[in-house]
């Protein structure tokens, strides 16, 4: 369950990771050690990333952690949030449990949630998401789709 809240006057987007349920067991103990990694993408490029704490030995973690991103109002339509749920492993590589993509160019619940957030500024909008197996290929391969070439992320246009 994720909550989005945008403050247009401050240019601040808050993504609150509330909780999850029925995650896949990744450890031999029959549980997982999940954490959430959020990447802020603008025109397909990673601008910022933030992580939650790791919740040990659970398939139903509760976080209630707010991750805040500064996004000027003029760039709010250019950004996408890539939310990865990852199983922490002390030895070896961390394993991906699933992915959620939220933003104006996304198809499905991530777009609906984003639009509702923009329609209700200064008010948190909460939604459950199903996890998908991998990052959608179009999120990575078409970073400038539909955007003017002079637009730059979080700054003046390049002149």
Automatic annotation (TrEMBL):
Q: Which UniProt keywords apply?
A: Repeat
Q: What is this protein called?
A: C2 domain-containing protein
Gene Ontology MF, one: SNARE binding
Q: Which PROSITE patterns match?
A: C2
Which residue intervals define the domain C2 in the entry? 1-129
- Write down the SUPFAM superfamilies for this protein, in alphabetical order: C2 domain (Calcium/lipid-binding domain, CaLB)
In the record, biological process GO terms are: calcium-ion regulated exocytosis
Q: Which organism is it from?
A: Scylla paramamosain (Mud crab)
Question: Is Repeat one of the keywords UniProt gives this record?
Answer: yes
One Pfam family from the UniProt entry? C2
The GO cellular component terms are:
exocytic vesicle; plasma membrane
């Amino acid at each position: 369950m994720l909550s989005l809240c945008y403050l247009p006057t401050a240019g601040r987007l808050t993504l609150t990771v509330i909780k999850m349920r029925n995650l896949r067991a990744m450890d031999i103990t029959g549980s997982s050690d999940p954490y959430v990694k959020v990447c802020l993408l603008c025109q397909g490029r990673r601008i910022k990333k933030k992580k939650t704490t790791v919740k040990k030995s659970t398939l139903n973690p509760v976080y209630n952690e707010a991750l805040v991103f500064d996004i000027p109002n003029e760039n709010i339509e250019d950004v996408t949030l890539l939310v990865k749920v990852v199983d922490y492993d002390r030895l070896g590589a961390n394993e991906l449990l699933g992915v959620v993509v939220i933003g104006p160019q996304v198809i499905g619940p991530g777009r609906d949630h984003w639009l509702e957030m923009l329609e209700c500024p200064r008010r948190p909008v909460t939604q459950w998401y199903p996890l998908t197996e991998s990052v959608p290929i179009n999120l990575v391969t078409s970073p400038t789709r539909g955007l003017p070439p002079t637009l730059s992320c979080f700054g003046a246009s390049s002149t």
